[in-house]
Specification:
Elements lengths: L1 H12 L26 H23 L6 H22 L4 H4 L8 H5 L2 H6 L1 H19 L5 H27 L2 H11 L8 H10 L3 H20 L24 H25 L10 H5 L15 H26 L17 E2 L2 E2 L4 H8 L2
Antiparallel strand pairs: 1-2
Length: 367
């Protein structure tokens, strides 16, 4: 995929048609795309260079050779960092309507134009680089007793950080949901009362649209809580067919990672608007709402999404990393198989009592 984008970059560098950014992307301004003003003379070489970096990084990640600890760490940072840049820079507000779990309908894909489809390759590429980086990290991990102890300590640290990030990710959408629910009832929260009354008068469908938006946010809170609960590792027994079975690791990581990308990219556009960054051709706030909505009297016009959604996306991403390490600890995957029997006699690896590794975390997992 990186090679395909690289080939396109060379093609556009030399004047090829179909450049997916700038003037050829009519939806870019209202989606807060960072490439509104870019043309092929700049974007073509930029895509080419990015593709070459990606190809080099992919080659390094799949090479089967020993690495020094310093080079291994640098390669892990490079792989994850490259994926994050692809998401943070390329994606824009259209991701909300195209990527799961929010964009579950196929209708937006049927209407998507070429610039939008090209943009949606970035989350696939980012996920591929993350998976390749994780695979490389596990393949080159130090399996000596000291190395295993260090890996367990790192996973425990990420588990603690991820637990805190999970609580942040659960709290971040709540003000958004509250504001939306209040507006559906005509209560002036985050905006003057005349504005809320006028909104319901001119758009009466908001009586049920606002609760739906609030419900989506609250559903995100509920699903995020699963990262800390038992049902985040095993399907509840009342679910037909799969009740009691282990939750495959790819399911929460895939769906949660997609949600993190969506809310980050959507919130970034609102944040830029709040910071006064205007995109050429973008519909103004007055055009969008039918009246001026400037000033701090309208602090809740977007449900505080301008600050909460970027925070939500970042904290959810960190929470998923913590969940991954939590599963490794609970499944005793950090340590080597011969010393993984929690029910057997405790052994010591690098000063850690491996026999008691799983027990305390399993108890905490019930909470």
């Amino acid at each position: 995929m990186v090679g395909l984008c690289d080939g396109h970059g060379v093609y556009w560098t030399f004047g090829g048609v179909g450049f997916p950014f700038g003037r050829t992307d009519p939806n870019a301004p209202d989606s807060a795309s960072l490439f509104v003003t870019m043309d092929s003379s700049v974007g073509g070489p930029g895509i080419t260079v990015t593709g070459l970096i990606g190809l080099l990084l992919a080659w390094l990640l799949q090479r089967r050779h020993s690495l020094s600890p310093g080079r291994r760490k640098a390669l892990i940072i490079a792989g994850v960092g490259f994926a994050c840049v692809l998401v943070a820079v390329v994606l824009d507000g259209r991701a909300m309507f195209l990527l799961p779990p929010f964009g579950l309908s196929i209708a937006p894909w049927l209407d998507a134009d070429w610039p939008t489809i090209f943009q949606m390759t970035s989350p696939i590429a980012a996920a591929s680089f993350v998976m390749a980086t994780v695979t490389m990290a596990r393949r080159t991990a130090d399996r000596s007793p000291d190395g295993l102890a260090h890996a367990a300590a790192v996973s425990r640290t990420w588990e603690r950080v991820g637990r805190f990030a999970t609580y942040v990710a659960m709290l971040a959408p709540l003000p958004y949901a509250v504001i939306r629910l209040c507006w559906s009832r005509g209560w002036a929260v985050g905006a003057p009362e005349p504005f809320v009354e006028w909104l319901l008068l001119t758009q009466p469908e908001n009586v049920w649209i606002e609760p739906i938006l609030a419900g989506m946010a609250l559903t995100g809170v509920l699903l995020t809580s699963g990262l800390l609960c038992r049902w985040g590792r095993s399907f509840p027994s009342w679910i037909p067919g799969i009740g009691g079975r282990r939750v495959p690791l790819w399911l929460p990581l895939g769906m949660g990672g997609s949600a993190a990308m969506v809310v980050w990219s959507f919130g970034r556009g609102m944040l830029l608007g709040r910071l006064g960054v205007d995109f050429p051709g973008q519909v103004s706030a007055t055009q969008a709402w039918g009246m001026p909505v400037g000033g701090w009297d309208y602090w809740g016009v977007d449900g505080l999404a301008w600050v909460l959604f970027p925070l939500w996306g970042i904290s959810l991403g960190v929470a998923l990393v913590g969940y991954y390490h939590r599963r490794r600890l609970l499944d005793a995957d950090v340590l080597a198989p011969p010393i993984l029997d929690p029910g057997g006699p405790a052994s010591s690896v690098g000063g850690l009592r491996t026999g008691s590794l799983v027990g305390p975390l399993s108890a905490a997992d019930d909470g």
